[in-house]
Amino acid sequence: MIEATNTDLNSPKTESQSGLASLDPRSKILLACGFILTLSLLPPGEFLIYGLLLIVLYISASLSDCSPVYLVRRSVIALPFAFAAVTLLFTIPGESLLTLPILGIDISVEGAIRFASIVTRSWISVQAAILLIILTKVADLMWGLQGLHTPAILVSVAGFTYRYLDVLRSEASRLRTARQARSATLSAGRGGGTLLWRARVTGWMVGSLMIRSMERSERIYNAMLARGYTGEVKTLTRFELRSRDYWSMLVAALTAVIIILVAHFL
After folding, report:
1. Which of 61, 102, 127, 205 has the lowest CB atom count within 10 Å?
2. Domain boundaries, the chain
3. How many alpha carbons fall within 13 Å on the CB side of residue 266?
């Protein structure tokens, strides 16, 4: 592991950075995980506390030169996944809130509160994760995970997945271009072939993309081994935990404990 020193050869931390952006990657990871854990430990229905935590998140983003509007826009894509908990509306017993006239199913008040709580907490948690990624370079983020003794295989998989997403996207684009070049198009602009034929061609493209990806990954891995790769994240950036990191984590931990105790016992 790279020894933390005061030397910073290629660090994203500059004098112009402020707020959370100037912290050590390990501190930012722990703060983000602690924020999400605090949200998870809050009881359902504490929407006032959810809102206060969201305000704290937006203030932290603003102090770090990140627009809260950007967080909201990027986090909307994750909302449909939170709606997987929609069954709670019908499965949790309690006072009836609404009866669906066609299905004859009752939506309970408790179920609605539980569902709304899960969606709200998930949405806020996604914004916290997005803020972490925005304020931390990917290489520094991988270094921070390694510094927190995350299993090396997980760090490597996460780093390579991010690094080669564009490669896979380019490969898929070339396959799509090749298919269009070999496909006839009617004068009205609509391609020929039945739905079954289109599904079969799509399946062949997915299989071809998988085979090409596996072959490319083997070539890349062998090339990395030939250049001395040992599974350890290397970076020119040097980080050290400073007083601001310790104070930030201490204040965040105390605040989280107070919020959880107030939510559960008051």
Report:
1. 102
2. 16-137+240-266, 138-170+205-236
3. 7
Cβ atoms 141, 19 nearer than 8 A: no
Q: Distance between alpha carbon 43 and the CA centroid of its chain, in Å? A: 23
Contact (Cβ atoms closer than 8 angstroms) between residue 61 and residue 132: no
- pLDDT higher than 50, residue 1: no
CB of 80 closer than 8 Å to CB of 117: no
Q: Name the percent of the chain in helix, strand, coil, to the closest 5.
A: 70, 5, 30
In this structure, what token pair is assigned to residue 73? 């826009």
Q: How many CA atoms lie within 13 A of 246 on its CB side?
A: 4
- Between CA 147 and CA 141 the distance in angstroms is 10
Q: What is the CA radius of gyration of the chain?
A: 24
pLDDT the model gives residue 35: 95
Stated pTM of the model: 0.77
- pLDDT tens for residues 2-56? 334 333 333 334 445 667 888 999 999 999 999 999 999 999 989 999 999 999 9
Which residue bears the tokens 């894509």?
77
Which residues fall within 8 angstroms of residue 223, CB to CB, at 6 or more apart? Answer: none
Place of tokens 């050590």: 24
Find out whether 90 and 106 touch, Cβ atoms under 8 Å. Answer: yes
The 3-state secondary structure of 165-195 reads: HHHHHHHHHHHHHHHHHCCCECCCCCECCCH
- Residues 136 and 159: their CA atoms lie apart, in Å, by 13
Listing DSSP states for 85-144 in one string gives: GGGHHHHS-SSEEEE-TTT--EEEHHHHHHHHHHHHHHHHHHHHHHHHHHHS-HHHHHHH
